[in-house]
Amino acid sequence: MALRMWASSTANALKLSSSASKSHLLPAFSISRCFSSVLEGLKYANSHEWVKHEGSVATIGISDHAQDHLGEVVFVELPEEKSSVSKEKNFGAVESVKATSEILSPISGEVIEVNTKLADSPGLINSSPYEEGWMIKVKPSNPAELESLMGPKEYTKFCEEEDAAH
């Protein structure tokens, strides 16, 4: 409880809020003990990528938890539009001041859009992993693959257990 009060007072002092100007675009979020946000309405892979499935399009990025562990992102390598991605296979890389990490696709499909803003502003992955920092949009070839991904509660627990093990 004291930790939550400290986080709230710190957020207020820094003029941070979960109801930012774009909050109407996002589902509600919860904050885990490690202060990484996990959004409702998204699915998560155990490799820390997220998927937002809307109609025939799935938007993919890396989670707040992942970007927090990576540190400052300085370079992003992404696939070309019209290329295909396969579930649990590498589709790009994120280079941070700490390390370079492969990005695995949580689902299979055709890349229909790439976030070109990341070429000039890779830090968007740190500052806005679920909004401006998305990576690719995919037309899923097997929508049933989404069912094997974790929901927000499962992913929060997964992250907490993973952090406790390290």
Tally of helical runs: 5
- Following the backbone from N to C, one meets helices and strands in this order, namely HEEEEEHEEEEEHHEH
Cα radius of gyration in angstroms: 16 Å
Runs in which pLDDT lies below 50 for 5 or more consecutive residues are 1-34
What does this protein look like?
The chain is α+β, with helices and mostly antiparallel strands. It has a single domain, classed as OB fold (Dihydrolipoamide Acetyltransferase, E2P) (Beta Barrel). It is 25% helix and 30% strand. It has five helices and eleven strands. Strands 3-4-5-11-10-7 form a six-stranded antiparallel beta sheet. Strands 6-8-9 form a three-stranded antiparallel beta sheet. The protein has a two-stranded antiparallel sheet with strand order 1-2. A hairpin with a 2-residue loop joins strand 4 and strand 5. The longest helix is centred in the C-terminal third of the chain and has 14 residues. The glycine decarboxylase (GDC) or glycine cleavage system catalyzes the degradation of glycine. The H protein shuttles the methylamine group of glycine from the P protein to the T protein. It comes from Brassica carinata (Ethiopian mustard). Its main location: mitochondrion.
